[in-house]
């Protein structure tokens, strides 16, 4: 693993840029071009493997963002994609072939579940879903043709935390590639490569962008794997536009301060909800009583800005509550400066079967909130007034 040159909050602002003294723009220029001019065909050949050949292969604005993400994760290299799903699908298709097998946690983003269980079988790649935190199940599911452990931590939307040391050791023992969706953690709260994970994926749409104004994906990790994925990205074509990559760079500059504030806000809200008589259960890794609380404290610097909770009522109560909120905007997505609310059965996990959702603990009463950087007291007051729409009441919530 490549050692960090600086701490994460410094890399967020300066990562990927040249720190030597020179005359030039402070802000990375946007190379808004599809192609690059050369003087002769000799130079054309030399340009082909660089980021100044053709933008589907690479682009200098994107390169700065890719280097910054690699430095934040403490790995060799990173790649940007048109979306988080683009990062997942391209990486898996780059590294696996027909006849291969994947072991994946059951609790993962619904779009990833759909790709693994409904789409990959068409190409002869099978996936076995296992209980996220039952590592014996992970081990038992490994077959001679298994190539990858597909992971996500904390999970969407029930915030389970995966023991990264354990899964990395299991992968080493069986010579498997580990790919983790670390969108919920961000490199500010966890750096999976430090625990031996090979590839770290992000929906950059979320915390990296941070302002709910762009769509992007990223994969960071070992140079040999990134090289394979780059070649597949060029073929499949799911690259990020340089203009959006510039917005991403601007977003990442404030990643550390945003996430630190979101950690504080979300913890206070989780504590408030856990005490509320109309809340049945709260899922937040930094809340005492969470089943992986000790592991979360060991592996993570903060619990992140997302939490979910079940109202003590019906699915209809959950819907009404989400509509009664004013400061939490009813919209899918997460990780931005504006607080959002959504009902996972209608959004992030609408595309998977009710049976799968039930196994993942995603009920109709579950509400997911993404806590922004507004004032925590205002956010709590908003939740307090909206909880009035739920008719039942109990003594205190369960955590986990
Ligand atoms: C945890 C997680 N991973 C991946 C994705 C997919 O990312 P994108 O929407 O950028 O394709 C999402 C989107 O909600 C997500 O929440």
Number of helices: 15
The strands making up the biggest β-sheet line up spatially as 1-7-6-5-4-2-3
Proportion of strand residues: 15-25%
Shape: globular
CATH C-level label of the largest domain? Alpha Beta
- Find the CATH superfamily of the largest domain: Type I PLP-dependent aspartate aminotransferase-like (Major domain)
Question: Compute the gyration radius: what is it?
Answer: 21 Å
- Give the rounded overall mean pLDDT: 95
What is CATH's topology name of the largest domain?
Aspartate Aminotransferase, domain 2
Total count of domains: 2
Low-confidence stretches: none
Helix content: 25-40%
List each distinct ligand once.
pyridoxal-5'-phosphate
* Structural class category: alpha/beta
Structural write-up:
The protein is of the alpha/beta class. It folds into two domains: 8-253, Aspartate Aminotransferase, domain 2; 255-399, Aspartate Aminotransferase, domain 1 (Alpha-Beta Complex). 38% of the residues lie in helices and 15% in strands. The protein contains 15 helices and 13 strands. It has helices at 8-14, 41-47, 60-73, 84-95, 110-119, 135-141, 164-174, 186-189, 223-236, 242-253, 255-275, 293-299, 315-324, 354-359, 376-387, and strands at 77-81, 101-105, 126-130, 146-152, 177-181, 199-203, 217-221, 279-283, 306-311, 329-330, 340-342, 366-370, 398-399. The protein has a seven-stranded mixed β-sheet with strand order 1-7-6-5-4-2-3, with helices on both faces. A six-stranded mixed β-sheet has the order 10-11-12-9-8-13. Strand 4 (146-152), helix 7 (164-174) and strand 5 form a beta-alpha-beta unit. Helix 3 (60-73) packs parallel to helix 10 (242-253) and helix 13 crosses helix 15 (376-387). The protein is globular and about 75 Å long. The two termini are 33 Å apart. The mean pLDDT is 95. Residues 83-85, 109, 111, 156, 181, 183-184, 203, 205, 215, 217, 348 line the site of pyridoxal-5'-phosphate.
């Amino acid at each position: 693993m490549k050692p960090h040159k600086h701490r994460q909050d410094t890399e967020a602002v300066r990562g990927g840029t040249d720190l030597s003294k020179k005359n030039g723009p402070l802000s990375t220029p946007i190379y808004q071009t599809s192609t690059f001019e050369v003087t002769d065909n000799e130079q054309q050949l030399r340009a082909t493997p660089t980021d100044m050949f053709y933008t589907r292969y690479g682009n200098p604005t994107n390169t700065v963002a890719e280097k910054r993400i690699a430095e934040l994760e403490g790995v060799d290299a990173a790649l940007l994609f048109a979306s988080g799903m683009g990062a997942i699908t391209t990486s898996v298709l780059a590294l696996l072939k027909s006849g291969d097998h994947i072991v994946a946690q059951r609790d993962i983003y619904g779009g990833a579940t759909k790709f693994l269980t409904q789409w990959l079988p068409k190409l002869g790649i099978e996936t076995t879903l296992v209980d996220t935190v039952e590592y014996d199940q992970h081990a038992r599911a490994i077959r001679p043709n298994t190539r990858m452990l597909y992971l996500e931590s904390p999970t969407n939307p029930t915030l389970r935390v995966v023991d990264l040391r354990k899964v990395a050791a299991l992968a080493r023992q069986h010579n498997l590639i580990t790919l983790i969706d670390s969108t919920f953690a961000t490199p500010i709260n966890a750096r999976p490569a430090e625990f031996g994970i090979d590839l770290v994926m992000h929906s950059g749409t979320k915390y990296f962008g941070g302002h709910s104004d762009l769509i992007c994906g990223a994969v960071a990790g070992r140079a040999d794997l990134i090289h394979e994925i780059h070649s597949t990205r060029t073929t499949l074509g799911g690259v990020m536009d340089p203009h959006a990559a510039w917005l991403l760079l601007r977003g990442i500059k404030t990643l550390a301060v945003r996430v630190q504030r979101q950690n504080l806000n979300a913890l206070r809200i989780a504590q408030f909800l856990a005490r509320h008589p109309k809340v049945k259960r709260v899922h937040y890794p930094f809340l005492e009583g969470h089943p992986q609380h000790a592991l979360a404290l060991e592996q993570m610097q903060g619990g992140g800005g997302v939490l979910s909770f079940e109202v003590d009522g019906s699915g209809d109560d959950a819907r009404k509550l989400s509509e009664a909120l004013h400061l939490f905007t009813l919209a899918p997505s997460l990780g931005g400066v504006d607080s959002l609310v959504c009902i996972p059965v209608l959004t992030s996990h609408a595309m998977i079967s009710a049976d799968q959702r039930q196994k993942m603990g995603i009920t109709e009463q579950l509400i997911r909130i993404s806590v922004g950087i507004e004032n925590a007291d205002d956010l709590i007051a908003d939740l307090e007034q909206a909880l009035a729409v739920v008719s039942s009441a109990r003594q205190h919530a369960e955590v986990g």
